[in-house]
């Protein structure tokens, strides 16, 4: 009898689903718009209905379902309730209980970047490594880490939050209320802020203007625009600096770069490597590789399934998949 | 039959030993000067002879010895050989093999700060916490961490090396060859460097002069000397900044401050708390405590014994000590 796991990745605009067999094969993938009305409280019933519909469609009985894993863009407590997910509206929201009541199987909740880290660790760029640090750069900057084969959550769920490590004391004001967070220098809004600052200072450009977005900045940099290259190099500098400190402190085997901005490829990775090598402790870099993510947006679904399988003891002292 | 574990903490000037029962009780503690002649190669036979002498003295047969744990001030590889321990002279030195040949029991080697972290986690200020970050501030700055109950080594042994995380890009030159490492701002030589810089800039003091040492600086700060307070506040600023980033990224339950300089007590801890609170991500600080170490210099011996007991499976899913 084939058994199944459901991986859910709740996003600010779209929520993605994966129906996986317990051997890690994708049976079906689908997505629905995230319903943020009523503080996000209307949405869980829609997630549950969508999953149950798929079970019916594939003739999957409740006994064949091993568990449900859910990634959420926010801080998750140790009892797996949502402390805050501002992009959805959830605040002190008992997400785990809501799902555990609906499905009579283990339900695991975790931060979305942590689960993307787990997905890359399990099936992606961090495969077969005992320790992986994953950073995702897009609208904001998130991160997650696998240490000694285990996902690290931290005592209040912030572990891996590299976007909120400080790189400039008393630097740019961040949405978190503090100053100088990495994400204010390398994520989408950070790049646009750099662009405006440099335009105001009269830096020359043939391709960029006040309203250019992050994609335009990276495209202009790839085609040699001086201002765009300067902005990208600045972002790579702060990213290299922050990742070098992570490498020194955590000393993982892999540092994986994911998220929308990582699509810029070598335009970002080349200057990043340069700055990283200069800032990192030599001994920490001896066996470490800095690589782009292998999954695109699906890492979170895999990670959510991994979390459930991990909880069920699938990886304890055994090679996955089970024979 | 009582069984025993030997914990060894190799220091730059003195090497400390602890003979512990497998219930964690101290049977005897002793120390010998560290012999650094001949690139440190004369020293291991002295360690071995000292341990064997204690076994004879207490009538302990080889069958009663469960293992030997050794802390070394340097980088240790995953196969537990010493990559480099510049203060002893060891470089690519097969310390594990030398001891495994002498004693027919498990021999575990690890970095000294990692083992001090393990000692504080096991029996000290981090007792009963699943995750602990330990920082030791003295001649240099070291650190270690326990995550999900496991010691984190990293792929090339640098995990926990907070002293070599950068706090000032292109800042003071460090012995590691890079610029702006935390240890250049808060360890003994960092304080003295700050002192000289500020004296040169004409800052006023009634108690300090060019040759004042770290103890004098902290004593002067405690008695209200303006320059000394300025220097200590500066060190606390950088320390608070670096520890806030650790708290955000690792989100441990305890951050423990140890090492010689931590003897300064509130003179350091008060400004440190202030800067830490200002720099840390609010969510990361919700359940976190910043505390002085409970052990003095003995944490490493306990940690070395812990490492052996851990290897022997003493803590797996059971409360220590065994009933």
List keywords for this structure.
five-stranded mixed β-sheet, globular, ATP binding (chains A, B), Glucokinase (chains A, B), 35% helix, Nucleotidyltransferase, domain 5, homodimer, alpha/beta, 323 residues, 2 domains, nucleotide-binding (chains A, B)
Q: Please work out how many helical segments of chain A DSSP would assign.
A: 9
* Morphology of chain A: globular
Query: Spans of chain A with pLDDT under 50 lasting ≥5 residues?
Result: none
Measured as a percent range, the helix fraction of chain A is 25-40%
CATH arch. level architecture of the largest domain in chain A: 2-Layer Sandwich
**DSSP strand count of chain A:** 13
Radius of gyration of chain A: 20 Å
Largest interface: A-B, 45 and 45 residues
By CATH's scheme, which homologous superfamily of the largest domain in chain A applies?
A: ATPase, nucleotide binding domain
Order of helices and strands of chain A: EEEHEEEEHEHEEEHHHHEHEH
Let me know the largest β-sheet of chain A.
Answer: 5 strands, mixed
Amount of beta strand of chain A: 15-25%
For the largest sheet of chain A, list the strands in their spatial order: 3-2-1-4-8
Might you state the CATH topology name of the largest domain in chain A? Nucleotidyltransferase, domain 5
The oligomeric state is homodimer
CATH class of the largest domain in chain A: Alpha Beta
**Count of individual domains of chain A:** 2
Return the structural class of chain A: alpha/beta
Arithmetic mean of pLDDT of chain A? 93
Family (chains A, B): Belongs to the ROK (NagC/XylR) family.
EC number (chains A, B): 2.7.1.2
Pfam families (chains A, B): ROK
InterPro entries (chains A, B): ATPase_NBD, ROK, ROK_cs, ROK_glcA
